[in-house]
Amino acid sequence: MASTPKDGERCAAYGFKFTWTPDHLTPEQMRPYMFSYDVLATEALDVLDHADPDPVKGNISAAKQDRQAQTQGQDQQTSQSGNPDNNKPKSSHHKRDLFTLLQTHHHENETLSSLWSQIHTIPEWVDWAQIARGQLVFYRYALPFVISLTFQSLLGGMGSSRVSHTLSKTGGFSGKITRKRLLDTFQHVLDVTRDLDSIKPGPHNGKGFVSSVKVRLLHASVRRRILLLAKEDASYYNVESNGIPINDLDSMATIIAFSATVVFLGFPRQGIFLRRQEIQDYLALWRWVGYLMGTPVDEQHFSSPEKAKALMESLGLYEIDPSPTSAALANNIITGLQNQPPTFASRDFLQAQAHWLNGRELATALKIPKPGLYYFVLVGLQCALFMGFAYVRRAVPCLDERNICRMRRLLRKEAVMNQCRGVEASHGFKYLPRLGKDTVQVQDGPPSEEEEVRDLFGAAGGRKKKRRGFGEMDWSFGNDHDHGGGAAERFWLVVVLGVSAALGGVGLWLGRGLVVGV
């Protein structure tokens, strides 16, 4: 849009229309956020290096580190080739638990003490009862949440060319790694929604609280690494055009993607409309998570649903501008999920969901092929089923409570025990930015079993476990997923036939009654 809209003017961005208000942000108002970032976490990271040196940041240059690591790897492979036991690749990357380091040394340094004090200081706008209700909202609509977060917040979020450019530098969104990356993100969501104690600071520091701080320090590590590489090679990352890597605007967009985008876009496009109280509660939860992650969650943008919605719309209008990298990463997400447990959904079905959730214009701009009508019918049926379950359960308190307890238990079991083989996400610096390394190539297929084990347990591998479907249910309808997937589609087809048979039975019964009456 060439000029700034006036109050009351209708705006459109990739098929989404809204009315401009004083709460919306212009490009000039958003640009300063591109060059501000979480300085406190960055300074704390530098201090933590003295307590436990980071091998990524040393006295030698990053480029030399990369070349030396490659040379050492070749030498080790040559010298160990005669010993079968030494053929297993070994990771030399030192894994640090940054939260534990912060917890141990925060009293020794003023910067660490400031960060520790900040994350343990409760802002006056925090209402723990409201945040607890926000956690319940997630599990009340768990499956629509998962669909919206995956295909709109994450896949659709790749439409931001700046964000996708930064993500491509980590190498963590290739088709072979994307699924593990998404599972790590989903584990963080489950951690912050587990229960109220999990997100509260205190003597024992809940798991959601700890993982949020770890993600904050991880972002600081990635930011520092990319800036270090940019100093060595100006073509690697352009700060002037892209802003500081993982800047305040990016952080705000992330919180909006996990909150406002879901309730104001993802849910309505699935036919689900939350009550206003549910919206307020859920946004309050993610405002607190954003605070822990160093995001500017001030009154101007996050104090009400209207302000959060205005920020979401401003970002959609000015930040969504898909690039070839955006298209590559979006398609890599689909590649990483196709024919994978627990649903073993085909690529066509996943593409149909991407089109349904993001709209035709954005999906086309992301180069996501449009599948046939059959798959859109299945997605529509899925939405209808979600609508029925959502509205009925929330209207009956006993059903609502039972559903929340069941989904809370089932999602964690599926995400951690079944899909990640019991491995909890560490939120460590795993995907290391390097010169000449990115993920702009579209991958052709999902990861193999061997690659998944390596991603989960490291280069040395680990004990394989049999993958199970959603919970204890076998969604694969036999072993058909080994021959191309599509079990999710067949599941919905069975539902269609079942509903049709039920309606047919009702019709026959009514028809018989009419005949008898005559």
UniProtKB/TrEMBL annotation:
<feature type="transmembrane region" description="Helical">
    <location>
        <begin position="491"/>
        <end position="510"/>
    </location>
</feature>
<feature type="transmembrane region" description="Helical">
    <location>
        <begin position="373"/>
        <end position="392"/>
    </location>
</feature>
<feature type="compositionally biased region" description="Low complexity">
    <location>
        <begin position="68"/>
        <end position="82"/>
    </location>
</feature>
<dbReference type="GO" id="GO:0016491">
    <property type="term" value="F:oxidoreductase activity"/>
</dbReference>
<feature type="domain" description="ER-bound oxygenase mpaB/mpaB'/Rubber oxygenase catalytic">
    <location>
        <begin position="148"/>
        <end position="370"/>
    </location>
</feature>
<dbReference type="Pfam" id="PF09995">
    <property type="entry name" value="MPAB_Lcp_cat"/>
</dbReference>
<dbReference type="InterPro" id="IPR018713">
    <property type="entry name" value="MPAB/Lcp_cat_dom"/>
</dbReference>
<feature type="region of interest" description="Disordered">
    <location>
        <begin position="50"/>
        <end position="94"/>
    </location>
</feature>
<dbReference type="InterPro" id="IPR037473">
    <property type="entry name" value="Lcp-like"/>
</dbReference>
<keyword id="KW-0472">Membrane</keyword>
<keyword id="KW-1133">Transmembrane helix</keyword>
<protein>
    <recommendedName>
        <fullName>ER-bound oxygenase mpaB/mpaB'/Rubber oxygenase catalytic domain-containing protein</fullName>
    </recommendedName>
</protein>
<keyword id="KW-0812">Transmembrane</keyword>
